[in-house]
Amino acid sequence: MPETVEYSIFRGSESGAIITETVKHTIQPNEALVEISHAGLCGADKLSKTKNIPLGHHGAGIVREIGCAVQHVNIGDRVGFNGLQNPCGDCDYCIGGKEQYCTQRDHFEKVGSFATHAVWQASMLIKLPEGLESKYAAPLMCGGAIMWEVLTTNDVRPGDRIGIHGIGGLGHVAILMSSALGCDVVVFSNSQSKRHDAMAIGAKEFHVTNDNVPETPVAPVQHLFWCRDGPPDISNGTIYVLAVGLETVSVPMHFVVKNGIRIQGCSSASRKTIRKMLRFVRLHEIKPWIMTWPMTADGIQDAFKALSESKMRYRGVLVGECGLA
Ligand SMILES: NC(=O)c1ccc[n+]([C@@H]2O[C@H](COP(=O)([O-])OP(=O)(O)OC[C@H]3O[C@@H](n4cnc5c(N)ncnc54)[C@H](OP(=O)(O)O)[C@@H]3O)[C@@H](O)[C@H]2O)c1
Ligand SMILES: [Zn+2]
Ligand SMILES: [Zn+2]
């Protein structure tokens, strides 16, 4: 007899208030109920806050129930998850390790991680390795996953001069990972106050920008990771656009052609990438810098406030009851 479970979720609203809602769900054969211990607050969540959808799209927790066909995880397992669910498993993207681009996949608006629990397609859950605390694993399921994906699937090599623009949740993980990979890391930030932190975690140069433009000329980079909102700088190299901005950007095609510029969009990551990323961060003892709040409507609102006031250093994490133990 399939079990029906009841739990609380937090969703956005037009006014921006955080709404608490009770959800009932009958667990299907291939699903698992996860009690959420930690969920990361990402720049992308700012877009969800004023929509009537469940909030949060990545996190970590403990499996509490499984459907009758689930073999991949067991009750009691510590798992992580990003927003990706129901890729078809059969298209070129899915079998080529790029399931995040499967046209059949569900978008993350359906299930949120700002909640006491969530029901996920069990095969999309990733067991967390011993020795990596869930409070660090949770934020890595989004920012860590996408940064590992762009750094390792785009011909970025040790010694390459790479630029990282915008030092928030994504940007600081980009510095940690790329310096561990042996890259020459050049940071661009509108916040002079982040200089010390950036240099402490592996940057070799730090350039203050005014409205995203460096105050003094900077030698070209081979790869530029655009980790902030606003139109990207396309003056040299390959530009990896990570920000989920809604603006339309005009691109001077003659300049792009003449200078061999590449513009590469990048979103999310496959389970294969996430597993490798988790092994790498354990090996190199990489930990995101986090600030924590309780997983309550007030806690979520306070975390959003810190994010919008640029006070986050560098990733907010909401902590559920089982994360306090
Ligand atoms: N492609 C993907 O899979 C993926 C995954 C996660 C997030 N994202 C997107 O990537 C972007 C960055 O995410 P995040 O989680 O790192 O966000 P975040 O923590 O808010 O950091 C963004 C950074 O942008 C700069 N910034 C802050 N306010 C700004 C403003 N009003 N205008 C322009 N820049 C501002 C700040 O950097 P400085 O102080 O250094 O200037 C800030 O630290 C967002 O657009 C997010 O939606 C994409
Ligand atoms: Zn995210
Ligand atoms: Zn597919």
TrEMBL record:
PANTHER family the record matches: ALDEHYDE REDUCTASE
InterPro entries linked: ADH-like_N (IPR013154), CAD-like (IPR047109), GroES-like_sf (IPR011032), NAD(P)-bd_dom_sf (IPR036291)
GO molecular function: metal ion binding; oxidoreductase activity, acting on the CH-OH group of donors, NAD or NADP as acceptor
Keyword annotations of the record: Metal-binding, Oxidoreductase, Zinc
Record lineage: Eukaryota, Fungi, Dikarya, Ascomycota, Pezizomycotina
Keyword Acyltransferase in record: no
Stretches assigned to the Alcohol dehydrogenase-like N-terminal domain: 28-130
Name of the protein described by the UniProt record: Putative alcohol dehydrogenase
Entry annotated with the keyword Zinc: yes
Superkingdom in the source lineage: Eukaryota
